[in-house]
What we know:
With 168 residues, this protein is mainly alpha-helical. It is 60% helix and 8% strand. The strands form two sheets. Strands 1-4-5 form a three-stranded parallel β-sheet. It has a two-stranded parallel ribbon with strand order 2-3. The mean pLDDT is 91.
Amino acid sequence: MRPLFDGTPLIYLNRAGLAWVLEEFREEKFTVPKFKEQVVDEGKRIGAPDAFAVDRLISAQKLRIREPSDPETVKLFSGVRGLHEGEKQVLALAKEINGVVITDDNIARSTARIYGVEAHGTLYLLMRLFHRGRLKKDEVVNSVDLMISEGWRIGAREYSKILRETAQ
């Protein structure tokens, strides 16, 4: 798995004190320049603490910035209503390098499936760590609750699924 992150998972994992989650995955991790601009540059301008945490991950090269090399691949996603420029770049790069998009945006995940790109949300990362024994049930639930209290959105169905899956 070569994960490519959009902004939301980066922001909320950091807000919940879960930056270490990214380091648990040994594969190279990427984001695109547009999300660096939005999450780090703009975030630092307004004093968002998560922006500084993401910047440290980038500086330590635990999260790499990479742009899609083929503009035609980016254009493939340009007509999709509701996708932001950064999401188009992440989808294009994932298609190029056979990566896995980590996004909490339903339009981006749906578009990824249509174009044969694997995509998952932040919960996928937490549940992988749960199944590896790196997070306990209460840590998963507490982390999700903390992200929600920070403004992260999750549907009742997904929340219920976490409770069922961690109860096993």
